[in-house]
Amino acid sequence: MLDIREYADAYAVEIAELFHQSVHAIDASVYTPEEKEAWAPTPPDYSFWAERLKVKQPFVAMLDGSVVGFMELDADGHIDCAYTHPHFQRKGVASALYRRVLEVAQASALTRLYVEASWVAKPFFAYHGFQEVQKNEIERRGVTLINFTMEKILCP
Predict the structure, then answer these.
(1) How many angstroms separate the CA atoms of 120 and 145, rounded?
(2) At what angle do helices 46-56 and 12-24 cross, to 10 degrees?
(3) pLDDT tens for residues 106-122?
(4) What predicted TM-score, i.e. pTM, was given to this entire model?
């Protein structure tokens, strides 16, 4: 059974690997190998991820003792990272994480959620009521990547 948990330091390596695997599993017709490597360098920088995760404190989806997804929610309503392990995509993991994020956002009286969604994440967020605000070009390690700022206005 899928369990959504608070972050613990013990999940850092698994999350770093999940992030890397998720990005590199994207079809090359969507993001080229060069774009994926710029986005998620090989090997993952485990110390960077350990420090990042201590600050971000993502929600973590666990199944049978393994991390299968994670999603971050900043205090201002920014969803910074939302990733599901490639073997568990389209099985409700991201939706379960999003439901937890939405519960916390509403309990915190946030009026807006926003995200910079990749081409592959854009349909997920659109399905959950996010609207595209703008298309972005960002540079990572000398490579230009495309993502989309999307937002959802929450009822007070």
Answers:
(1) 13
(2) 110
(3) 999 999 999 999 999 99
(4) 0.96
